[in-house]
Amino acid sequence: MGSSGSDTGGFRHKIATAAAALLLMVLPSGVASAETGVQGPAVSGAIGQLYNTSPWARGVLLRPTGTEQCTSTGCVQKFAGGDIAWSARTGARVVVNGAVRTAWWDLGGPFGSHGYPTTDTASGLRDGGTKQVFERGAIISSRATGTQETTGSIHFAWLRTGSESGYLGYPVTGERTGLPDGGTYQVYEHGFIVWSQASGAHPSMGAIRERWRQSGLEGGELGYPTTDESTGLKNGGSAQQYQRGMIARSPATGAHALTGAIRAYWSSTGGQNGALGYPVGEENRQGNFVYQQFQGGTVYWSAATGAHSTTHGDIHNRYVALGGAAGSLGLPLTDKLPRAGGLVQQFSKGWLVWGPGTGAQVVGNPTYRVWSENPGDFGWPLRDTWTDYRGEHAAFQKLETIWNKATQELYSAEPVDASTAVFLGDSQLDLDSWAEQGARAAGYPRQVVRSIGGIGYVSGSAVGSATDAVLNDRILLPQGNPGLVVVNLGGNDARIFATDAAILSQANKLWDELRRKYPRSTIVINGVLSRYDSSHFQRRWVDGMLMRETALRGWPHISMAGTATIAGADGNYLDNIHMNQVGHNKVAPLYASALRYVLGR
Known about the structure:
Blueprint: H1 9-26, H2 45-53, H3 55-61, E1 69-70, E2 75-79, E3 82-87, E4 91-96, H4 99-106, E5 122-125, E6 129-134, E7 137-142, E8 146-151, H5 152-160, E9 184-188, E10 191-196, E11 200-204, H6 206-214, E12 230-233, E13 237-242, E14 245-250, E15 254-258, H7 260-268, E16 284-286, E17 289-294, E18 297-302, E19 306-311, H8 314-321, E20 337-339, E21 342-347, E22 350-355, E23 359-363, H9 365-373, H10 375-378, E24 386-388, E25 391-395, E26 400-404, E27 409-412, E28 420-425, H11 434-441, E29 446-451, E30 460-461, E31 464-465, H12 466-471, E32 484-488, H13 491-495, H14 500-517, E33 522-526, H15 537-553, E34 557-558, H16 563-566, H17 581-599
Parallel strand pairs: 28-29, 28-32, 32-33, 33-34
Antiparallel strand pairs: 1-2, 2-3, 3-4, 5-6, 6-7, 7-8, 9-10, 10-11, 12-13, 13-14, 14-15, 16-17, 17-18, 18-19, 20-21, 21-22, 22-23, 24-25, 25-26, 26-27, 30-31
Helix pairs in contact: 2-3, 11-17
């Protein structure tokens, strides 16, 4: 049985035969005829009330030709121009002679598939049409479409469209059965209504129906429609939902199907109202992924990466130029994201990073991880990542980096050799410091300096402590094998009165990391420069603790306790901690001498 209890031809014939037999039992032989001029039978009750009070009813029905005949469900009385049928549920209604009345009686009249009328016969409709609504459907007739019936869910769906005056127009066939899952359909002047038990009854028409037909209709990938077509969408668009997807259409893009993860992603981003707009093509499979193009970009999906889009702009254009998903970057792993006043997007094999004035450039995954922690320390990338014998390079506005795959380390790209000294320290390395002057005097003319105010083994600044910053690549040291690595920390740990245990724990972590990074370089640990007055007691204490620890480990070390006083520089301070250039110049020769000694020069 279909959506409305519609019958096959044989079943309808049985209903009509049974109804005719019942009427023969209840109607008397030899009823009066209006043509003979003989007075007809009386009318009474609800049927008489309608006949006697409605000039229109008397005008179309003329004289009664039979007596009122009743059953347990209601009553019918025949007239020269039609019938009046009454039931307690529907009231008294006129059924006028014509195609609609004939079809109604062929279907069994009030005892058939449609039951009692709920409206009078309506005539004068478009194209000479007539219509009457019954308890379980309607019968409609027009010159172009003939006489058809609608029942059940399909009938109610047709009413939602505006009936014959709506966008579907008149039915042109009866209800048809035999669709998958027991579904039925009915053809109308401008489309169809399709029903199944699981999906209900919904109209199907126009460009969206044509796209659905191309997919195989209800037996195809989309299944049955589950909603009516939604119209009045953005830019004159429309859409319809199906059991396994949807079809979206606009005048500019045509009608295209959306299914699965891509459809879910598109909906989550705002559908046609979002950045992607309407689909401009169908879903395409390429290798292990699928993609679909939209007005505002492309959505990609794979089982490994999920669904993500590239939306129009510099990043999208650059991605396409690099070969898209089949190119050097692979599939997107994120959507486009704002970052530090620019935009970034991750792909399987790297990131595209767009900065104002620099455009979209490729940055490798390990380098991006460090860059994203502190973009301001690097600036925006100036070109794509490239690879040479040293590793994977990335050129930023302020710094060039190298990722070494063998060591899984990120370095800065300054070239170093045996004549290079690398310094890691705090603001004691400001100006042309005593440490830098001493190293040059000891034979290290090339220098790379990492000096950050406020940091120590424990004490931190924006990048954290020196130990954490080096361990987490927030301070990048150069790649290669410098002749000398100098650590110049501890003053800020004295300033904050860090505990001995905390300082030693963090110091050993840092020293071990430096040894791992520079296994062939000489690493010298400087103490804390100080005066001999009482205000520098804590600085001298930390110096002594560090020197004892390095001595136990057998590391080269230089104590700087009281060296400012020894050098005659007590009066050469900018404040109580930082020397002026004259002070640095006075201390430098003493440090150079000590450095040569520990280096054996």
